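User: My collaborator sent over this chain with a note saying "see what the structure looks like." That's all I know about it. Can you take a look?
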Amino acid sequence: MVGVGVLALTAFAARSVALAGFGLDSLIEIAASVVVVWELSGTGEARRHRGLWLIAFAFILLAIYLAVQSTWLLATGFHAHASPGGIAWTAATAAVMFALAAAKARTGAALGNPVLQTESRVTLIDGFLATAVLAGLLLNAMLGWWWADPAASYVLTYYAAREARAILTGHLLHPSKPSAR
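Assistant: Without extra context I'll predict from the sequence alone. Here is the result:
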């Protein structure tokens, strides 16, 4: 939750749609973890189904928000401010996510645990998302490429739409299918 707060503050200060989107995505990922805890606690199929719908809906809203906001910013030529705090946070986040993904993959392979191996790929994607946002922030700050911030948020838009689709087609329409993530 600290990371979400840092991202919210840096996004607001810089008026960065990419940072805001990354923060919202992080919030959705936290909510998804709560659904996993629900599932592991054996609270029932109906509650899990409702939780998955909420996560899918959150990803749909995120994709719509980012697509509209990014397109609007590009069309109007809005220039986000440089964000040294956002650059530092996303650089650290990317490094941690890549290291964590490698550790999860190794541990999952050693234990023969497919859930942990799948989770390592989700963590790897989080590292890539942080890197995309970092690239947009750096290009804006160092080269003045103002359009890089909303362009980076299109990467997040794609990811959010893909996740919503995977949840809706994989989990909710075919509940007996294993996770596509």
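A starting point for your reply to your collaborator: Residues 2-172 form one domain.
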